[in-house]
Amino acid sequence: QSYSHRLQHDMYFLTSTSRLNEQVVDKIILQLNRVYPQILTNEEAEKFRNPRASLHTRLSDLLKHLQKKGDRHCQEFYRALQINAEQLFNDLPSRKILKTPDPTEIDTDKEQYMLNDRGPVFFLACFSVAAGLALFWYCCNSDTKVVGRARRILGFSPIIIGRHVRNICMLYLEDISRD
């Protein structure tokens, strides 16, 4: 959507009462007068800053004038509005239309939440299943090298598990190795 169409769409919102005060309008006009390339000439800037005319009239005239000048001028107006009245710039109707998401587009934040909403119990259950399968595969493997490695690991672990548990595990491994 072109900036002049956006400005036409936002004109009523901008000119309604108490949206823009006199100081902000003057700052915008001065910025448009000082921007390179110059958007408003000195005479035009003085005309739109005339304190004898009402703010509503001056602002309406300014917006119509910018629409006649073209898209580049309207773009500079939006830039000046963003710099001088950011909250109002974010509340513009044309900005809300631009922010509206495409209904066919996937919302990645929502999708991320949907994948992670299972909680810690689900994580512990999955981890337990994976650990159980790994232990089952490790213990049921008929390779004798595995038993030797397990004996070495259990032999150096009296700190981790008690001596009685270690002795029981060692006896179990010796029984398995005899078979």
Automatic annotation (TrEMBL):
Disulfide bond in keyword set: yes
Pfam families: CARD
Any one Gene Ontology BP term: regulation of apoptotic process
Segments forming domain CARD: 1-96
Gene Ontology annotations for the cellular component aspect, listed alphabetically: endoplasmic reticulum membrane; mitochondrial membrane
Subcellular location(s) of the protein: Endoplasmic reticulum membrane; Mitochondrion membrane
NADP found in the keyword field: no
Membrane spanning stretches: 120-138
Keywords: Disulfide bond, Endoplasmic reticulum, Membrane, Mitochondrion, Transmembrane, Transmembrane helix
Entries under InterPro entries matching the protein: CARD, CARD19, CARD_BinCARD, DEATH-like_dom_sf
UniProt main location, coarse: endoplasmic reticulum
Gene3D superfamilies to which the protein is assigned, alphabetical: Death Domain, Fas
Membrane topology: Single-pass membrane protein
PROSITE patterns: CARD
SUPFAM superfamilies cross-referenced by the UniProt entry: DEATH domain (SSF47986)
Oligomeric and partner information: Associates with BCL10 by CARD-CARD interaction.
PANTHER family reported in the protein's UniProt record: CASPASE RECRUITMENT DOMAIN-CONTAINING PROTEIN 19 (PTHR34765)
The protein, known as: Caspase recruitment domain-containing protein 19
Organism: Tyrannus savana
Chain's gene name: Card19
